What we know:
The chain is α/β, with parallel strands linked by helices. 37% of the residues lie in helices and 17% in strands. The strands form 10 sheets. Strands 9, 10, 11, 12, 13, 14 and 15 form a 7-stranded mixed beta sheet that branches. Helix 2 (71-89) links the parallel strand 1 (55-57) and strand 2 (93-95). Helix 9 runs antiparallel to helix 10 (447-455). It is elongated, with a radius of gyration of 36 Å. Mean pLDDT is 90; it is low at 1-13.
Amino acid sequence: xxxxxxxxxxxxxxxxxxxxxxxxxxxxxxxxxxxxxxxxxxxxxxxxxxxxxxxxxxxxxxxxxxxxxxxxxxxxxxxxxxxxxxxxxxxxxxxxxxxxxxxxxxxxxxxxxxxxxxxxxxxxxxxxxxxxxxxxxxxxxxxxxxxxxxxxxxxxxxxxxxxxxxxxxxxxxxxxxxxxxxxxxxxxxxxxxxxxxxxxxxxxxxxxxxxxxxxxxxxxxxxxxxxxxxxxxxxxxxxxxxxxxxxxxxxxxxxxxxxxxxxxxxxxxxxxxxxxxxxxxxxxxxxxxxxxxxxxxxxxxxxxxxxxxxxxxxxxxxxxxxxxxxxxxxxxxxxxxxxxxxxxxxxxxxxxxxxxxxxxxxxxxxxxxxxxxxxxxxxxxxxxxxxxxxxxxxxxxxxxxxxxxxxxxxxxxxxxxxxxxxxxxxxxxxxxxxxxxxxxxxxxxxxxxxxxxxxxxxxxxxxxxxxxxxxxxxxxxxxxxxxxxxxxxxxxxxxxxxxxxxxxxxxxxxxxxxxxxxxxxxxxxxxxxxxxxxxxxxxxxxxxxxxxxxxxxxxxxxxxxxxxxxxxxxxxxxxxxxxxxxxxxxxxxxxxxxxxxxxxxxxxxxxxxxxxxxxxxxxxxxxxxxxxxxxxxxxxxxxxxxxxxxxxxxxxxxxxxxxxxxxxxxxxxxxxxxxxxxxxxxxxxxxxxxxxxxxxxxxxxxxxxxxxxxxxxxxxxxxxxxxxxxxxxxxxxxxxxxxxxxxxxxxxxxxxxxxxxxxxxxxxxxxxxxxxxxxxxxxxxxxxxxxxxxxxxxxxxxxxxxxxxxxxxxxxxxxxxxxxxxxxxxxxxxxxxxxxxxxxxxxxxxxxxxxxxxxxxxxxxxxxxxxxxxxxxxxxxxxxxxxxxxxxxxxxxxxxxx
Length: 898
């Protein structure tokens, strides 16, 4: 259970004096009708006067606005909405905003393809620019065919397209029935979001948590930007092992053979490294070898990260081929000899460390070539020199990719911004691990993903990107009299000047004409990684900078709902920013959704091309049906995309309408508030039904408190079908009483009607978080207000009405009725047929229930004659059996005369 302070449920009020049950019930149009009513009435509006103890705040995931939503979004956002609706009914004031994540690489790529453009910051702004075309959704426009435009023109197109996307997203979310307060939306590229991100960065910088460094980093040559560790994907990539001979440089005879998949990095080799315990190479430690073709002398060193059982057991360390090279370079204090540039090609200048004339001549041929072309030239040279042992052996190697990229990443040295995250600070790492221990993970087994990620970090969080549409770093640098940029003395704005764009704004003390000239200033050219902004969603949505009063009422938030694949990015980065700024967790609990799997059991994703867009599903099956499918899957559990489950959900929603109409049809309109008077419930069967419902309320409430919406739905749905199939059939004659024309209502009839009213009232509220449209429709027939602001049901009133009744009575009575119906079916007679005599063989365990409900069983089964009960022994599958039944077929219906 949470420590959320939620007031006790209020007494039920507002029963209509006159029922307005329609003659024909239908789900058609309920989404449009009720969405309009909820908006008009402000049903889900957040009351900002509520105290923090009264508020339940949700850090809603802002979906990436870079195309269409898919059914996986519907899946996970439904889980969140069930929580929001439940908490609202528990009496909490729910802070449930919606954000749009509209900056970053996905948006840029979509704009490039949609408008056929690319950004060239060197170009001037064209206020009259018209893109070459509008469209291209899902198509990849070649870079050569994209029209270059200025950064400002490019950003304007990004903003234009995201606005269109956001309107479509909101329409879909409304159709799904998300109970978001639509007056509280935000964009991660808005002025407020930029100001929050820049202010948080400046404070990180002031405390020494943010810093700039010239260091090796992962680089995507396609997007021309640095990539953080959290954005990596290891993928299989075709390659070949090359056995390459190094020669002893100390005059000793012999060669040292290594195996490599990247021979083009030979000019960047700085050492050969083997495990210190590997006896094959211990005699070489401390000696030097010369690299083939280039003749550069490098040491042979020991490091425990070397793998004796991999290849030759000794590897060349190049700066930089992979992350292991970076580790060796840092820990062994090796020189930097980079040869790969940001464009993915070999640097065009011959490196100064290559002094051998033949080596310099060969490098001159390599200069400016792609790594693929350079590899071919190097392998040819090795083959001709005799330093290639045999031919290359093809293999599949693991290579690091940017999660949105198509080519393997390179490691290049560049100046980047970082935020400390424990990757190089053991004390901070332990603090962040402790924060993870404080956080409530639902399900709890997701906690280990957080722990493994934090424990495995090997570097700080790289937050700068060499892109265009994002939050710029609020930094300028002075330019010396010699025209050099001085990165050691950054020029910073004050917090009240934010947001700023250093590429167009001028720092205090300077004028615009001093930009880029000696004695003047230059802007930091980079933007923040999108996660550097998204990690601040509690601060952005909660008004940390602009509305401290609101922030005090919603922060720390109660819930972070999100997908399992971004625990390492969004969840962890948000914890980092909150820990550094506030010394606390950003929320109490995290609800982690699983993935949606396609029919082949593969994760659905836009990159795989196997997604299903949801609007068609919502229109075909109805929103409640799709929500039912989503809510049928537990948190953290992958679920198959099943239209069949949606059809079940639609049948359930329709059954709610039909069963409610049936339950409300007894007794006419004169009951009024008596429909919910528990004192009128006097019959054992009615009390037993309410006793069972009381158990469901307690168990469903406990499940929802534990973020197990699936268990709550299962309990409610199972009871509901029993209620429809058994209880309604058993009591309908008694509930109807003397007929609609009679004003006489017996105690037995009043008991049935009151029990039906109480049960319907509770069931609608139990179903409301999952089936908001069907339940609101029924609620409007007989209750004032909205079911979604009605108090969550409690079991106390039901148990008072139930007394000491046994819930098993309903099942026993249902078994008795089923036995009578079975003999009619076997005789191929209508259920209207009368039973003039029969014997019911009743197992001992069921006998009390059948006995007390015998009158209702007789009426529902049309047993008009003798009905004897015979007790039989209990067995594992014991049920009631009808024997020696005599049946009277119903009279045929008269055809109307002309």
